[in-house]
Amino acid sequence: MKKRSEKQLKRAAAMLTTFMAAASLSGCGSSPENKEADEKIQIKVQYLCGRMNLDLESVLENKFPNVDIVTDELVGDPDYIIAKEMEHNIEPDIYLYEGLYQMDDKVIADKFYDLSQEEFTNNFYLSAVSECVNEDGGLYYLPGPVYVYGIVYDKTAFQELGLEVPHSYTEFVNLLNEVKAMNLRGTEPDENDPDAEVTVDVEPFVPTVKWADMWTFIFDSYIYDDYLKGVDNALWLDKYQQGNESMIGHMEGAAKKLIRLFDDGILSPAFWEMRAPVRTAKLYRYHTSLMTIECQSALGFNEWENVETPDSIHEIGMMPFYTSDEEGSDYLFSMPRCYFGMTKKAAQDEAKKEAILEIFNFLSTQEGQDLMIEGGGGEINLLKESNLTDEPFYDEVRDTFNQGRIISRFNYAGKSGAVESYMHSTTLDLADGKISVEDWLKEADRVRDEALENKPVEEESYGTVKEMLTMEETAVVVGEAYLHATGADIGIVPCRASFGMKNRLFEGPVTDKAIDTISTTRMSAGIIVEDPNHVNIVTVRITGQQLMDLLEKNKDTFVGLAGLDVEYDPSKPEGERYLSIRYHGKEIAPDDEFTAASVKGAVKSLPVVKSYDELVFGDMFISYLDSNGKEISGPPKSLKIVK
Fold it and tell me: Is 470:501 a contact under the CB 8 Å cutoff?
């Protein structure tokens, strides 16, 4: 691994603290000079399924009349798809994707436009964008709305019991001891008899630390001031993530503070076994705990847990993590739901770059952030102009938020999460003295080194694609696999439909990931159907007229037709794009009859001849590859797309 000099490291840290005051946005607000006033700039936005607010497209087009937003949903393995797109230089203009922070810094620097000199970056809290800063000091993406985690507490119970909200670490520990001394009792359903109740102790603080991310909220928040905050600690972390520093000599105090959390009653081994639904019910429904760790979704959980018994609902609030008795040592933890960045490929077109910068300027405002995510406005953004509502839930964290004391992920092993997973799984051994602080930290170093050296396991290849296919061409190839499996006359595979093709076959080996990406026989994320059998492959009887009706029904998109010779012109108006459809050299007629293979949901109005309920897409496609000598030489010859 190439080492960076101290000078380079200091430059990266310096950029982290100064890029917010960068030069003003060039050309923002003006129309691109090399476009006619009535000519729209097409901008492709790729987003993760279930994340982007679909209204965002129309909002952006209304707000920026000179652009035409084209959205592309990431379905399947987004990391695989993005990596392949970048390998073939077909990436979109904008990524709206939560996984950007996990991508390799060198790939990010190579493929994304550096935003660090844009004025709108100054809209965000410095702490909020710190994890977005690349190892080279560049800022290639920005955070969208986030989940903000703190300690959620039962305000009603606090008032009834005369408890004061703490404002320091010692006050929080004293609160835990005060509640324990009250010997409060409550009732919960008997886990062995749901119709019976059992009496249990009311516990002051019951989070779940079953998973590493919840552990991270606690560990990073409580050690932040002394071990992660500031330029010197940022330099240490940067070196550590590169494999050039050690936990030894830096994190001993952090480990000891983690142990102290057990001694002070903040952490308990029971939290490692606590399932999230259990702690949720204890706080909101049964009122047998007073506090937990949760995000702003707590408001919804509180209502949901009491939907059948609204009279028993308690008022809740959020307080920050109090990490010491020093002023300003209260923190919240944030988890962005997405990030947004512009590709360098898009930035090569000056007009397009300026248009995207205008869009990013908008997305860096409260209005833009609220519109970014599906649902709109339910999340909190990390802008200096706080969007915390007047909801009393936020009263105790309003100052913490407004002061920007919001911590993001640090990822000790270069974004892999390997060190966090190790530390989370061994914390109880550390607290019990089964492993020494020194050995714990040394093993963390070893796990870090292994993660940095770890190379992806090469997947088994079932064949080869000699030339990258378009989505439309891939749909026809998948249709051919249907025919191979069923013996039908034709295959029908809609593109960009709930039960159709959403991706493509890339040049290179056909691995499990490649097959999974083009699979049509599983429900897409976010697609709910009343009958799960809609995702099965079936054969149906279809006439030429019914086929034409099906194409007309899907006139705004492409339907892959295998077993037929098709000439298609995407430039034609909707409904006129299929110029010619021939079967065995003869143009199909309305009264022609065929057996067609498709996913049931795509041909649900037609009578089923046979249902292939046990047919697994992967096995079907591998068998198809075998029948072709394990090779797809290029686009199917049966499809001619007019350029």
Answer: no
Quote the pTM value. Answer: 0.78
Strand, helix or coil at 234? helix
Residue 500, classed as helix, strand or coil, is coil
What is the C-alpha to C-alpha distance for residues 317 and 435, in angstroms, rounded to an integer?
A: 38
How distant is the alpha carbon of residue 393 from its chain centre? Answer: 26
Q: Which tokens is 128 given?
A: 């909020």
Structure tokens at 281: 């019910």
Count of all residues that appear for the chain in the document = 643
Report which of 170, 158, 259 is spatially closest to residue 202, judged by C-alpha positions. Answer: 158
**22 φψ region: left (φ > 0), alpha (ψ -120 to 50), beta (else):** beta
Q: 212-227 and 252-263 are packed helices; what angle lies between their axes, rounded to 10 degrees? A: 120
* 640 φ/ψ angles, rounded to the nearest 5 degrees: -120, 115
HSE at residue 99, side-chain half, CA atoms within 13 A, is 15
Helix/strand/coil for 408:
coil
Is 327 exposed, middle or buried, given 0-12, 13-18 or 19+ CB atoms closer than 10 A?
A: exposed
Q: What's phi and psi for 379, nearest 5 deg?
A: -100, 170
Write b or e for each residue in 493-523: b if 16 or more Cβ atoms lie within 10 A of its Cβ, otherwise e: bbbbbbbbbbbbbbeeebbebbbbbbbbbee
Q: What is the pLDDT of residue 29?
A: 36
Which residues is 372 bridged to in the sheet? Answer: none
pLDDT value of position 387:
65
Residues β-bridged to residue 336: 146
Contact 501, 491 (CB under 8 A): no
- The pLDDT, as a whole number, for residue 521 is 62
Cα(53)–Cα(74) distance, integer angstroms:
14
- Low-confidence residues in the chain, pLDDT < 50: 1-37, 376-377, 522-530
> What is the Cα–Cα distance from 225 to 233, expressed in whole angstroms?
10
Structure tokens at 77: 């393995």
Distance between CA atoms of 554 and 568, rounded to whole angstroms?
14
Provide DSSP, 548-614.
Answer: HHHHHHTTTS-EEEETSEEEE-TTSPTT--EEEEEETTEE--TT-EEEEEEEGGGSTTS-EEEEETT
Reported as type and span, the H/E element at residue 496 is none
Note the pLDDT of residue 616: 86
Integer angstrom CA distances of residue 47 from 99, 103, 213, 244, 497: 11, 15, 24, 35, 16
| Residue 385 pLDDT | 80
Helix axes 418-432 and 252-263, enclosed angle (nearest 10) = 60
- Compute the CA torsion angle 316, 317, 318, 323 (nearest 10 deg): -100
Residue 407, strand partner residues: 333
For residue 465, report the phi and psi dihedrals to the nearest 5 degrees.
-105, 115
